[in-house]
From TrEMBL:
<dbReference type="Pfam" id="PF08241">
    <property type="entry name" value="Methyltransf_11"/>
</dbReference>
<feature type="transmembrane region" description="Helical">
    <location>
        <begin position="12"/>
        <end position="33"/>
    </location>
</feature>
<keyword id="KW-0812">Transmembrane</keyword>
<dbReference type="GO" id="GO:0008757">
    <property type="term" value="F:S-adenosylmethionine-dependent methyltransferase activity"/>
</dbReference>
<protein>
    <recommendedName>
        <fullName>Methyltransferase type 11 domain-containing protein</fullName>
    </recommendedName>
</protein>
<dbReference type="InterPro" id="IPR052356">
    <property type="entry name" value="Thiol_S-MT"/>
</dbReference>
<dbReference type="InterPro" id="IPR029063">
    <property type="entry name" value="SAM-dependent_MTases_sf"/>
</dbReference>
<feature type="transmembrane region" description="Helical">
    <location>
        <begin position="45"/>
        <end position="65"/>
    </location>
</feature>
<dbReference type="InterPro" id="IPR013216">
    <property type="entry name" value="Methyltransf_11"/>
</dbReference>
<keyword id="KW-0472">Membrane</keyword>
<keyword id="KW-1133">Transmembrane helix</keyword>
<feature type="domain" description="Methyltransferase type 11">
    <location>
        <begin position="89"/>
        <end position="186"/>
    </location>
</feature>
Length: 259
């Protein structure tokens, strides 16, 4: 049954890749051109589609991974960190999908370069009064100049490292803003193993996926990047979603790195 599902996934996504290219260059051509020409339109388009379409289809499949991410964090916090207020920075928070899983003692600062996510996040934040919201910084994660050195106990990212321009620079910025012994936790989708049909499909669909997903890059080896960034310790768990309709982005990591 598992092999049958795997074959179905490959076939569906092969034809989906063709369909994506076909729609993007025919009936969807005005949108494709607008996304290519205007970063503002790209930000508006992606924030709306992420909240009302992508989250609708995928959020239920990612709940378990979000929970695992915060369980991994809690497991590795010291007793002092569990009791004292935690200075937390979430980068690329979107509409706040991680908020239900935050510990009670968090003081949350947000960095997101897409200002059009802010109304969606503010609406979500009202539902979780146990989190002490501090501020939102509209800034690129590659240069978080408004976040001080050694100021954060925890940095969080989820489904973000795929779409930043330079994940290596982002990781160096995370190291800079973390306090000594601070934790970076993430849940990210990653590339298929090289020389597989899945990796080939990711390459084929990449140009259109990148444009419509506001910079999402399917084929990054983020586990390797995190391990090479300079953290003192890295714990990384790999997960593969079995659903055939998630075939193009089914490999995930949940990781925790200590400064």
């Amino acid at each position: 049954m598992e092999k049958y599902t795997e074959v179905i996934g490959k076939i569906v996504w092969f034809f989906s890749a063709i369909l994506m290219w076909g729609l993007a260059t025919t009936v969807g051509l005005p949108i494709t051109i607008s996304l290519w020409l205007s970063t503002t339109f790209r930000d508006v388009f992606f924030s709306w589609t992420y909240v009302y379409i992508i989250q609708f289809f995928f959020q239920s499949q990612l709940v378990s991974l979000r929970k695992k991410m915060f369980q991994l964090l809690q497991k590795n916090l010291s007793s002092k960190q569990r009791s004292d207020p935690l200075e937390v920075l979430e980068i690329g928070i979107g509409d706040g999908a991680n908020l239900p899983y935050y510990p009670d003692n968090c003081k949350l600062t947000v960095v997101d370069k897409n200002k059009f996510f802010e109304p969606y996040f503010r609406k979500s934040a009202k539902m979780y009064p146990h989190i002490s919201y501090q501020r939102t910084v509209i800034q690129s994660a590659e240069n978080m100049m408004d976040v001080e050195d050694n100021s954060m106990d925890v940095v969080v990212t989820s489904l973000f490292q795929c779409s930043c321009e330079d994940p290596d620079k982002v990781l160096q910025e995370i190291l800079r803003v973390l306090k000594p012994g601070g934790k970076y936790v993430c849940m990210e989708h990653v590339a298929f193993p090289k020389k597989t049909v899945g990796f080939l499909l990711q390459k084929i669909v990449h140009p259109i996926w990148y444009l419509y997903s506001n910079g999402c890059t399917l084929d990054r080896d983020l586990e390797k990047k995190i391990k090479q960034a300079g953290f003192s310790e890295v714990v990384c768990e790999q997960y593969v979603k079995p659903q055939w309709w998630m075939f193009i982005a089914r490999h995930f990591i949940v990781a925790m790195a200590t400064k």
